[in-house]
Design a protein that fits this description.
The complex is a heterodimer of chains A (about 55) and B (about 475). Chain A is mainly alpha-helical and about 55 residues long. Chain A is built from three helices and no strands. Chain A is flat, with a radius of gyration of 18 Å. The radius of gyration of chain B is 22 Å and the shape is globular. At the A-B interface, helix 2 and helix 3 of A face helix 7, helix 9, strand 24, strand 25 and helix 10 of B.
Chain lengths: ~55, ~475
């Protein structure tokens, strides 16, 4: 990402949080993402099953 | 023998057809009427629009499947509803017009005992001057055909950038009250991903334009999600996604008109502004199909079946009330028409009682806000409960309507693709539970904070990829398809 101050100068784009290197690493880490894959599946199934009667 | 007529073969209509044929004895007659014989898995249009899939990979011909299932298929479009019959035909019927080349214009009256109106939305490109896809530099990803054209146009722009020509990409909503921000959000992230994959980012300016009050609203008033030790909001989530990618945004914008190079919009401050573009993909407004309904004496009763927007009235509370008094109890549960109980409207065909996001009006009186979304997962669930209720009704003779699926009680998952690839891809897995916030049950956050989330990462791409194949497998009626949830 380019220098935020230069490209945004106190506009809306100046304020939001951005991921640090560790967060970016986790988002791409195959091992970590395999674990998240199963957790996300479980969470989706949970809301799906409760969704209708 | 009962005659069940289904109008539309999208997610809601096709799901209903599948469960009806499975749950009913073959002596009952199921007929599906659709203007096209193709089923398409719409969420994957995004990947067609950036050349990662072909239209053939996301669609299939319904006719062989319906033949196998014993379902009559008629390629036609519905026109007029006669829920009481008429002087000539005593039972309820629908007048349809064939859309095949051979029989174009031919009309037929199809009688029914139970009707499922799952015709989805009319893509109302006409409501925004100059928005029609194929018009200059304007693309759409609403259908596989549109998405295929979007990819052709995108390739032209990639070629120009490869020759050093700067291009402005503007993606978002193309009408002041458009919905489906999620699809546009996916597309802008995928376009950005493909530009960067080719190392062309210095020649591209990517801009999000939206009618949302804040980013991350997605037509459902945004959502609170647990993140990094805080309860955060999808506003920050969406903004963070854009800042990370150097995508800028224009919010609270009601697009009114496009010409070959400029988008004209009004914002909530009442200012009339312009945005230059070289490539635009803007989601149009949705409307009903303009169906007409008549009683047995031929009197027009369209207002009994449809709201002014043309969508079908169901068991929702349509009483006009201020935003502060909205409740999940306003939302329908069985999608049954109150005047004609044998008519149902699951999916986008039903008229919502109101939006989910707070309605906003500009200083000039223009309504600029996101309409309520009804994505694939809720539409599939609505199709299934409609089928289950009709099956019970036919089998027991009683309209118990014991199967219910309110958007105020069901959750939904949306996988927001942000780039294709099994090792380099990414997507945000988003869930909201329920879809419509329930401030009585969850006074702090409007939704169950344990099952409402937004999580970016590679796993999201695997999920979206898996869902593509899983839901097409289900739609094709392959062995044990019914074990796969909606």
């Amino acid at each position: 990402m380019e220098n935020r101050l230069i490209i945004t100068k106190y506009s809306d784009q100046y304020y939001p949080p951005t991921p640090n290197n560790f967060t970016l690493f986790l988002r791409k880490s195959v091992l970590f993402q395999i674990i998240r894959f199963f957790i996300l599946n479980y969470k989706i199934m949970k809301i799906l099953i409760k969704g209708h009667s | 023998m009962a005659k069940i007529l289904i109008l539309g073969a999208g997610v809601a209509g096709h799901t209903a057809a599948a469960y009806l044929q499975r749950g009913l004895n073959k002596k009952h007659e199921i007929t599906v009427v659709s203007p096209t014989s193709t089923y398409q898995w719409i969420p994957s249009n995004i990947w067609v629009g950036v050349g990662r899939m072909t239209p053939e990979e996301i669609k299939f011909d319904l006719r062989p499947l319906y033949k196998k299932w014993g379902i009559n298929f008629i390629q036609a479009k519905a026109q007029n509803f006669f829920p009481e019959g008429d002087a000539e035909i005593k039972s309820a019927y629908i007048e349809v017009e064939y859309t095949t080349k051979e029989e174009a214009g031919l009309k037929q009256k199809i009688e029914y005992d139970y009707l499922i109106n799952a015709t989805g939305p009319k893509l109302n490109f006409e409501a925004t001057e100059g928005l029609a896809p194929g018009n200059g530099n304007i693309a759409s990803v609403c259908t596989f055909g549109h998405a295929s054209h979007a990819w052709e146009l995108f390739q032209e722009k990639l070629d120009l950038m490869q020759n050093g020509q700067k291009q402005i990409f503007v993606i978002g909503t193309g009408h002041p009250t458009a919905t489906c921000q999620g699809a546009a959000f996916e597309y802008i992230l995928n376009v950005d991903f493909e530009i960067k994959r080719r190392g062309l980012e210095k020649f591209a300016e990517v801009i999000w334009i939206t009618n949302e009050y804040e980013l991350g609203d997605f037509g459902m008033g945004g959502a609170f999600i647990p993140k990094g030790g805080f309860i955060s909001n999808t506003k920050l989530f969406a903004e963070s996604y854009f800042v990370e990618r150097n995508i800028t945004w224009i919010k609270r914008a009601g697009v009114k008109k496009l010409d070959d190079h400029k988008i004209y919009y009004e914002n909530l401050d009442g200012e009339y502004l312009e945005q230059a573009y070289d490539f635009a993909m803007l989601i149009p407004g949705f409307a009903g199909h303009g169906f007409k309904a008549y009683d047995k004496n031929g009197a027009d009763i369209s207002t009994k079946l449809f709201t002014p927007s043309g969508l079908m009235k169901v068991d929702a509370d349509y009483t006009q009330k201020p935003f502060e008094q909205w409740s999940i109890n306003d939302w329908p549960e069985t999608y049954q028409n109150p005047s004609y109980p044998n008519i149902f409207a699951p999916g986008i065909a039903f008229a919502p009682p109101h939006s989910i996001s707070k309605p906003m009006t500009s200083k000039n009186g223009t309504a600029i806000f996101a309409s309520a979304p009804r994505t694939g997962m809720p539409s599939g669930i609505m199709g299934k409960v409609t089928a289950d209720n009709i099956i019970d009704w036919i089998k027991t003779g009683n309209a118990t309507m014991k199967h219910k699926a309110s958007m105020g009680r069901m959750g939904a998952a949306c996988i927001v693709s942000a780039g294709y690839g099994m090792s380099k891809g990414t997507a945000a897995t988003m869930t909201v539970n329920p879809v419509v916030p329930d401030w009585d049950k969850y006074p702090d956050w409007g939704r169950d904070i344990n099952t409402t989330m937004g999580e970016p990462g590679l796993a999201g791409h695997w999920l979206k990829w898996l869902m593509h194949y899983m839901f097409l497998y289900k739609a094709k009626g392959k062995p044990f398809w019914w074990l796969i949830p909606e």
